[in-house]
């Protein structure tokens, strides 16, 4: 992880999408989503599904989300 990486760590079904929308708004000076949020969600993948290789195609700052517990070692 780098100092400017952003992680959204949530328990399943506890507001992950809501947290993404809040983060998007904060990162874009209060600008809300347009009609299509698909591009943003594609740029904020689940870390446990894309792994390290998937991060190479992302834009900085990396925004990643996961349901992996904080105290569990990363497997990739």
Give a written overview of the molecule.
- The structure is a single chain.
- With 76 residues, the protein is α+β, with helices and mostly antiparallel strands.
- It has one domain.
- It contains three helices and two strands, in the order E-H-H-H-E.
- The chain has a two-stranded parallel ribbon with strand order 1-2.
Shape: globular
Broad structural category? alpha+beta
Radius of gyration: 13 Å
Sheet with most strands: 2 strands, parallel
Please give the share of residues in helix. Answer: 25-40%
Number of helices: 3
Report the strand count.
2
Strand content: 5-15%
Q: Please tell me the total number of domains.
A: 1
The mean pLDDT is: 81
Poorly predicted runs = none
Give the N-terminus to C-terminus distance in angstroms.
Answer: 13 Å
Strand order of the largest sheet: 1-2
Q: Helix and strand succession?
A: EHHHE
Q: What can be said about this structure in brief?
A:
This protein has helices at residues 16-27, 38-43, 47-55, and strands spanning 6-9, 63-66. It is α+β, with helices and mostly antiparallel strands.
For this entry, give a set of tags.
2 strands, globular, two-stranded parallel sheet, 76 residues, alpha+beta
List the helices and strands and how they pair.
Elements: E1 6-9, H1 16-27, H2 38-43, H3 47-55, E2 63-66
Parallel strand pairs: 1-2
């Amino acid at each position: 992880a780098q100092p400017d990486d952003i992680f959204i760590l949530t328990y399943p079904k506890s507001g992950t999408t809501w947290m993404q929308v809040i983060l998007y708004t904060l990162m874009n000076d209060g600008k809300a989503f347009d009609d299509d949020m698909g591009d943003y969600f594609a740029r904020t993948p689940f870390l446990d599904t894309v792994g390290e290789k998937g991060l190479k195609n992302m834009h900085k700052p990396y925004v990643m989300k996961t349901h992996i517990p904080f105290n569990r070692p990363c497997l990739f």
